[in-house]
């Protein structure tokens, strides 16, 4: 292939230079809390491995493999990998963890205790049995990152249009990937130097000899997971690559082409022969060790470096036209670097500096937002200071803490395990999204439903499973509801009209669209218990309640407050009783919740302030809706409320004295959420369910006022209940992680509504 | 029944005093443009009389009967009656009008030319044949208003709870309505005085004798539409009322109970005998003449007066316990008042003054917003000045204009006809609603689908037909679309992703959620043709287009403008070509529209300002979205645009010179809408249809950029088209009433989508 260097500064290339696609695979061993290989099966809560797009097992039953989708940013891939970790770790039983190092933990004495993955397909099992026989089970227990990389189509197309050597695009693209593969194999030692992270291995891993000192990467060395030296495949042309592989299989030296373990695999088709016609469309980089300092085994900056590395190799002229010579040299360099002591300088430092300079040059061609100067300066430092390599850092930590390699591994396995459970209602990688959406994504991933975030800010997801695509917003807005029903529920007047028409008890009242009209109507409501509220808003804003009726002054003020939130307001009859939220899905009440105002319970010993601080320690409490409950404040409103009870934050309430800190029961102002799904009288559930049916909704949060829930509710008897609101975007996280009572996994109900076949 | 007067001041009564229910029926004769009885059949466009809830025929084929639903305000009933008039008048053929006076127009010489209504049910026809035989066809041609009235349930219930005479509520309610009926029959002369409006009748109407002078109300007099004097029915008790009626039927004096023509009919059941068990639940007042000064035949203030009148009669003690005596007296008074000369004072003025005083007293009990003082003061004036009665006013107009009664009738028939066609895109009674909703309501009413406005501001309708209820918002949001699809379309990024994934050509681009991120990304877009726009807004706001690429300064400014409209913005590739709006419904392109910027066409004679003024005369142009097109302005932007062409508003463009006044093609800034549904190449319709299917939408406005619509469009060929937006709330009125081209009745398509059975 002729030099591409000259095209790098072409405008047509620069504008598309930074595009790419990435997909990650990450293996790791499942271990017990003691760091021993787990003896349990792959967790059943993770759905079926026969279709799971994200979570599989590789060689052994304990070797969990996480597979991301294809992304066009490093961030996207890392985020999903973060999430997959949360899902896997929280789905494992008995406190099992994931082993953070590429080299496996202590291996069992008896090989038979290493269980081959219990897959459904017999062919898959046979293949693993063959591998166990040829390489030994222990070699197969090594884990790593596979980095699938594709240049942007526009970049390759523009390059193709500019160059004059090729007239067929597919051929050009294939040769580009062959060139990059050769270059990668030639220079991959730098990756091993920077990111190698397997200095030690369990004694039982080695068969005859073993390294005499800690090294940069056992996995990438001759001790690693490699084919026998006689297995040689040419990267000169695609024809040769394919024919070499096929010959190896024909001769019985490989059982199938995927047994060929190269640091770079040419991809584009499941069947190697098809590469001849379809061409190579991406490459799979396979020599990345797990980074134990990262929960996901790989950092975003490593991915960015790899991207820049490959982009540089694309434009960099090859040092030789003899592919075999380059590959042999590359293997020699890499083997040497792999077995260097992690704290010693590499013998190829000079070539490394030259290579990093090439990366620097390419970087100057990238437009501002994609600039990687910081990253490259850091790589230069690491090249100069081997203790900053991953292997070097590992060694330094072990020395500092006097840890063995196993102890080091256990420490991080435990750390990442604890992190996964710290806030079980969040999903790593997507913590900026709404809690309900995070939990919903968790459930979908767990069950093997593919999830794509179409828009983060908008909480818009695309799910697919079994060829069936579903879009979901806010985890509760789906194709199962019709367009017009939520619009109906958004309008409180219309909702009430529809419910009243269907025979349900709703508070009487009037709607006003001008302040004057509302003010002049005071005589209608004089002396009646009323609620004044904006017509459409949904967060309890602008609502005034007058349980004993309002004076003209209070009424006028309430009208103005309500109008400040909306163009129309409602003045409604106040219904006495307790308010419950019924979450109805597909005709069935899935959760019932009682919310109580922020409060603490005295113990006769601590002050109100201390009790608040203690209650706020609950990991379910957070701020700004990042947790299912909000921390209780001690602001002006709370202090006023205390004052009315003759208390201050310094008062010590008696034992079992309940001190309220708020009048309103909103969870957002520190209120408690109590799940009462089991306890609630069925008669009210039936009222809620049939009312939601009357509205025509599939998913609905409906608020009932119930004066006495011990009495049987009756649709016709307005004394037993009243419906005050129906919510088309009902919160779900508060039901799933309530303050007290049993959590109701509503997100799973939504998932099953969309994909009932998952229930089987 | 004991006196109720004492309860009037009770708080429990006052709070519910003003509630009521009302339903109207209004008959009128269909006439030709010459004011002759129409000879055509009931219009076929009005659907079938076998189910039409609003538009029926009474006795004759020409006697159109309009029936409103039940409302709880006078305004609601009047508004619907207004709308029914628009629908009926616009549905009649050959310029037929409705006759505005109770007494029919010139009747044909031959009775056989008065056609009995061509109803489906043979029983209905037979009943009319019997009436024709017994009363003569001419008597049956009289028209009027029937006023159905029900006191609020709360008022009657509270009264029942306060009083001590009755222990059964149904019985109490029945006796209340009997009392009010007796009172109404006793004092109805005042209604005849105030609202009587049939001073003359055609000679052919009378059989033997006729009045010698103009009178207040022929219809309410002995010449009117009454039973023979010997038909007597007691209003003393419900038992007597029912048994009297049944006896009359048994004796063959009435063919069925509905042949009993009283000014008040007791209602509550189709079958009179059932009144004994179910009780009376409302009354039908039948003695209101058509008011020819009102298009609807009755004014809102008349309805308010009747309400107050009935409320007064409820609390007013009866002058006698002898019902027959009261009824006889009432009939005597009414007969006399009916035949008084309209310009003479009534002989019962004193009783009238006393009665109005009673109304005044009751009015003081009503809370502020329901106060009727103005109305009552006006009634007092009318009582003092007979020329202010309706009949008096009619006479004065006829005298002033030297019109005969027929000429008077023709004048108003023509006037109301012209009014109905002045703005055919509006629907009287609902002109404050969106045009598309008005047109949609027109279509639904025309076809006999029941329409209820659930919320005016929100354009929220409830339709019902054939037991099937449908809710519709904005005339295009229905149950046929799913919840999540419009949410998808609301988000331009998600829409593009979904379309791109499905293989459609959409402009490339990037989304930014911070100003800094967008600004720093300028190098990516430098020198490319781009569009900078807010992510979610839908009205063309905040959009900047750079067909030749943007300078850094222009780009920065555009980014800031877009961010002023939304939290996120898109910077997109600009697609060259012409933008067309495709309106796709149920998989089929129903309309294609091309919008052009505000412009005028020179005639070599008039100035730009004159051409604009002339173009603005089109009744399709209005302001503030009250018409399908907006008037062209001559403001700063337009003058600048003229200046750029070397013109001023005073310039005289050459013949056929097209002068643009705007750069943007929005209809809201005076642009023209051109329907090109027929002309558009089918290939683009198919692209639009399949793209909408890919989005999963039933109703969608999708915008295609087409560089050359004479070339066959191809989904795979990005050169032939690009999709720039999908709209979940697409405007419909501009397609129905375009500036040029054929109107596409999209509202009817929506109706047929909801009720396909209407197509049969």
TrEMBL record, chains A, B:
MF terms (GO), sorted A to Z: ATP binding; glutamate-cysteine ligase activity; glutathione synthase activity; metal ion binding
Sequence segments annotated as region (Glutamate--cysteine ligase): 1-338
Membrane-spanning segments: none
Required co-factors: Mn(2+); Mg(2+)
Catalytic activity: L-cysteine + L-glutamate + ATP = gamma-L-glutamyl-L-cysteine + ADP + phosphate + H(+); gamma-L-glutamyl-L-cysteine + glycine + ATP = glutathione + ADP + phosphate + H(+)
Entry keyword annotation includes Metal-binding: yes
NCBIfam families: glu_cys_lig_rel, PRK02471.1
Function recorded in the entry: Synthesizes glutathione from L-glutamate and L-cysteine via gamma-L-glutamyl-L-cysteine.
Name this polypeptide is given: Glutathione biosynthesis bifunctional protein GshAB
């Amino acid at each position: 292939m002729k030099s591409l260097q000259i095209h790098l500064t072409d405008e047509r290339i620069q504008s598309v230079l930074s595009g790419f696609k990435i997909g990650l695979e990450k293996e790791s061993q499942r271990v017990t809390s003691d760091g021993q290989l787990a003896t349990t099966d792959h967790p059943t809560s993770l759905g079926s491995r026969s279709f799971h797009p994200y979570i599989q097992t590789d060689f052994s039953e304990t070797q969990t493999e996480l597979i991301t989708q294809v992304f066009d940013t490093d961030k996207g891939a890392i985020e999903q990998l973060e999430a997959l970790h949360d899902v896997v770790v929280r789905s494992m039983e008995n406190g099992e963890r994931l082993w953070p190092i590429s080299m496996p933990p202590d291996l069992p004495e008896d090989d038979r205790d290493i269980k081959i993955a219990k897959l459904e397909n017999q062919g898959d099992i046979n293949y693993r049995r063959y591998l166990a026989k040829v390489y030994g089970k222990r070699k197969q227990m090594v884990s790593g990152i596979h980095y699938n990389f594709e240049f942007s189509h526009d970049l390759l197309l523009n390059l193709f249009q500019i160059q004059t050597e090729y007239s067929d695009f597919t051929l050009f693209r294939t040769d580009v990937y062959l060139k990059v593969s050769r270059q990668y194999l030639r220079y991959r030692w730098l990756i091993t130097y920077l990111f190698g992270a397997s200095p030690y291995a369990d004694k039982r891993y080695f068969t005859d000899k073993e390294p005499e000192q800690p090294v940069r990467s056992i996995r990438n060395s001759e001790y690693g997971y490699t084919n026998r030296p006689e297995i040689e495949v040419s990267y000169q042309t695609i024809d040769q690559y394919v024919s070499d592989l096929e010959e190896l299989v024909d001769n019985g030296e490989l059982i199938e082409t995927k047994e060929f373990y190269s640091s770079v695999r040419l991809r584009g088709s499941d069947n190697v022969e098809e590469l001849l016609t379809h061409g190579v469309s991406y490459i799979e980089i396979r020599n990345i060790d797990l980074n134990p300092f990262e929960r996901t085994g790989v950092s975003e900056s490593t991915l960015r470096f790899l991207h820049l590395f490959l982009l540089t190799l694309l434009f960099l002229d090859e040092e030789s036209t003899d592919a075999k010579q380059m590959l042999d040299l590359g293997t020699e360099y890499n083997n040497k670097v792999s077995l260097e002591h992690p704290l010693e300088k590499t013998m190829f430092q000079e070539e490394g500096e030259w290579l990093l300079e090439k990366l620097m040059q390419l970087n100057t061609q990238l437009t501002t937002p994609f600039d990687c100067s910081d990253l490259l300066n850091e790589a230069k430092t690491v090249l100069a200071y081997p203790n900053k390599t991953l292997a070097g850092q590992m060694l330094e930590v072990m020395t500092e803490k006097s840890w063995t390699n196993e102890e080091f591994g256990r420490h991080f396995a435990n750390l990442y395990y604890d992190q996964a459970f710290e806030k079980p209602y969040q999903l790593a990688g997507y913590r900026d999204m709404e809690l309900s959406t995070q939990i919903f994504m968790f459930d979908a991933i767990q069950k093997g439903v593919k999830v794509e975030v179409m828009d983060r800010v908008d909480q818009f997801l695309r799910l697919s499973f079994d060829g069936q695509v579903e879009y979901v917003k806010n985890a509760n807005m789906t194709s199962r509801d019709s367009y017009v029903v939520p619009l109906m529920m958004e309008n409180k007047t219309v909702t009430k009209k529809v419910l009243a028409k269907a025979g349900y008890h709703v508070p009487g009242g009037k709607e006003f669209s001008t302040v004057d009209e509302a003010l002049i109507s005071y005589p209608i409501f004089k002396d009646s218990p009323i609620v004044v509220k904006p017509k459409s808003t949904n967060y309890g804003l602008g609502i005034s309640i007058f349980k004993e009726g309002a004076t003209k002054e209070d009424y006028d003020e309430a009208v103005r407050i309500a109008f400040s939130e909306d163009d129309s307001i409602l003045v409604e009859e106040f219904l006495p009783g307790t308010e419950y939220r019924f979450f109805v899905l597909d005709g069935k009440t899935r959760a019932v919740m009682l919310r109580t105002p922020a409060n603490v319970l005295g113990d006769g010993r601590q002050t109100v302030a201390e009790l608040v601080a203690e209650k706020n320690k609950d990991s379910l409490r957070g701020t700004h809706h990042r947790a299912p409950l909000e921390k209780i404040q001690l602001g002006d409103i709370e202090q006023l409320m205390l004052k009315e009870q003759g208390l201050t934050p310094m008062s010590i309430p008696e034992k079992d004295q309940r001190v309220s800190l708020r009048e309103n029961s909103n969870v957002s102002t520190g209120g408690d959420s109590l799940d009462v799904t089991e306890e609630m009288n069925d008669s009210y559930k039936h009222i809620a369910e049939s009312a939601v049916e009357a509205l025509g909704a599939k998913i609905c949060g409906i608020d009932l006022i119930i004066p006495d829930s011990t009495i049987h509710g009756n649709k016709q008897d307005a004394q037993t209940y009243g419906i005050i609101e129906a919510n088309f975007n009902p919160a779900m996280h508060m039901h799933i992680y309530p303050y007290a009572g049993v959590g109701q996994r509503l997100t799973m109900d939504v998932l099953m509504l969309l994909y009932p076949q998952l229930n089987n």
